[in-house]
Design goal:
The chain is α/β, with parallel strands linked by helices and 464 residues long. The chain is 33% helix and 17% strand. It has helices at 76-82, 84-88, 94-103, 110-120, 135-146, 163-177, 201-210, 220-228, 245-250, 255-265, 283-292, 327-338, 352-356, 369-380, 414-421, 445-455, and strands at 9-14, 31-35, 58-61, 125-128, 156-160, 192-195, 215-219, 239-243, 273-277, 301-305, 315-321, 343-346, 366-367, 386-389, 404-407, 434-440, 459-462. α15 links the parallel β15 and β16 (434-440). It is globular and about 60 Å long. The model is unreliable at 1-28 and 35-74 (pLDDT under 50). Bound molecules: adenosine-5'-triphosphate (ATP). Adenosine-5'-triphosphate binds next to α5.
């Protein structure tokens, strides 16, 4: 797996001007909220049985109607009742809510609708929902409901696995904290620091010394350095968010620092810990570990939106069989026939074995943190793009205009498939189709079939 700590990752960006491409509870037990927009009993989640008594988990199966899309709104009253403002009012400051509306977030996504009341009740939470379902806004709204901008202290910490994701989350937080058109709405004292690997720690140290930011978005490497130097203290931290939590626990570079952080935070009064991801393999086991290890309080809530549909349903999946030597021309033909608005081509990091064998890597350019960051900023500035990337772009990165994903190399497992595919279909209320195409050899067909079974989706064969 590509790691944020590697400063030199195969990654290449091509900007092409190509033609027409989201209850407060009295029970103090862990809770699993599981909702679904599909009802097929045969498609029940297949999580492994955890080594604990199932009675220790209070499972609520709630049957909630699908997300109300703007097209299905019937009356203004209904909109008001279900709106983000209605859910957040009394918790989130008004100027933030104005900003949320200005940006165009009027209705909650499913995870936001389920999670926000739980988050506002100050319970620890595991946000488990499809890629592109708006988990970021859910935890940011919690943070804005909790912070006191009159206090000069770091009050919320969001930990992310990569610099790119950190920049993106910081940008969304700043956008929400920023000025809105409403008089008196500007929040002068809410500052957001991006403390990310590859950044200039010297500048951040002097910022932390002079006036602590209210919110920090950090990667673990940089955060640990600041914690060790006691530049950041966990005592004042009201909320700790660990985004892409399964990735962080699976990363050999990050897992020990993450465990240390969670153990240190467990002794803090008034804490609230949020974990988020679209994929939490063995989530019952994870819930058990959270309580056993005191990473969360015992009444942690696991909110699992759409468990039988781990990927957005509007993503169409296809595969094309060809030999290894035909892959480049197959990709070119696909790009020509699909004429995507904007696309990401995923390649694997070249293995040591393949390097030793003298094989050429799938991408030829190696670029560092800053160039990677520049590439993403460029992409967000608009225009059609064709991004060639490794799995480093597979986690959390939000480029909503991406209509097509190409797996030039088959992802190494179903979780990687899910996150790569999830780089498209990122407009929660849109119904337009997005496409994921895997270019595979005939021998790889059974591997893709395994992913289909695991992730419960169907892949159509494509013939050129
Ligand atoms: N209530 C909303 N209404 C409209 N758009 C929204 C809403 N909430 C979030 N979005 C948009 O949905 C997109 C995906 O949101 P976000 O990046 O938070 O997804 P995510 O759940 O964190 O996905 P991933 O698991 O891939 O990281 C973003 O472009 C965001 O602007």
């Amino acid at each position: 797996m590509a790691s944020s700590s590697s400063s030199s990752t195969q990654f290449q960006m091509l900007q092409l001007q190509v033609h027409p491409w989201k209850l407060p509870f009295s029970c103090n037990k862990p809770l699993t909220l599981t909702t679904t927009t599909l009802t097929s009993p045969s498609l029940v989640q297949r999580s492994s049985t955890p080594p604990f008594r199932s009675s220790s988990i209070c499972t609520h199966q709630t049957s909630i109607s699908p997300i109300t899309s703007s097209s299905s709104r019937s009356t203004n009253e209904e909109i008001d009742h279900n709106s983000l403002r209605n859910i957040c009012e009394g918790f989130v400051p008004d100027h933030i809510l104005h900003r949320v509306e200005e940006v165009g977030y009027l209705m909650p996504t499913e995870i936001q609708r389920q999670a926000l009341p739980v988050l506002f009740s100050r319970r620890d939470c595991i946000l488990h929902a499809q890629t592109g379902s708006g988990k970021t806004l859910a935890y940011l709204l919690l943070i804005f409901s909790v912070i006191n901008t009159q206090r000069s202290a770091v009050q919320a910490l969001i930990v992310v696995p990569t610099r790119e994701l950190g920049m993106q989350v910081a940008k969304v937080a700043r956008m929400l904290a920023g000025k809105s058109g409403q008089p008196g709405s500007e929040d002068k004292s809410c500052t957001i620091m991006a403390l990310l690997d590859g950044g200039t720690l010297k500048r951040q140290k002097s910022w932390l010394k002079s006036e602590p930011p209210t919110i920090i978005v950090a990667t673990l490497g940089s955060l640990c350095q600041m914690l060790e130097k006691q530049m950041i203290k966990l005592e004042s931290m009201r909320v700790l968010v660990i985004d892409e939590v399964d990735f962080m626990f699976n990363s050999s570079h990050q897992v020990s620092s993450l465990r240390k952080l969670l153990i240190s935070y467990s002794s803090i009064n008034n804490r609230q810990t949020i974990f988020a991801s679209a994929s939490i393999p063995q989530h019952r086991r994870f819930l058990y570990d959270c309580i056993q290890q005191k990473w969360t309080k015992a009444d942690v809530v696991h909110i699992h939106a759409n468990p039988v549909q781990p990927m957005p349903p509007r993503i169409q999946h296809r595969f094309l069989i060809c030999s290894r030597s035909e892959r480049h021309s197959a990709l070119l033909s696909l790009l020509q026939s699909d004429a995507p608005q904007s696309a990401i081509v995923f390649v694997n990091v070249q293995s040591e074995k393949s390097k030793k064998a003298g094989n050429a890597p799938a991408t030829t350019e190696k670029i560092n943190f800053n160039s990677r960051a520049a590439s993403f900023s460029e992409l967000r500035q608009g225009g059609a793009y064709l991004l060639v990337a490794t799995d480093i772009a597979g986690r959390g990165v939000d480029l909503p205009d991406t209509t097509h994903i190409y797996n030039f190399d088959l992802p190494k497992d179903a979780v990687h498939y899910l996150h790569r595919a999830g780089r498209t279909g990122r407009k929660p209320f849109s119904e337009s189709k997005c496409v994921v195409t895997s270019i595979i050899t005939s021998e790889e067909r059974f591997v893709l079939q395994r992913y289909e079974n695991e992730l419960m989706f169907h892949c159509d064969e494509l013939f050129l």
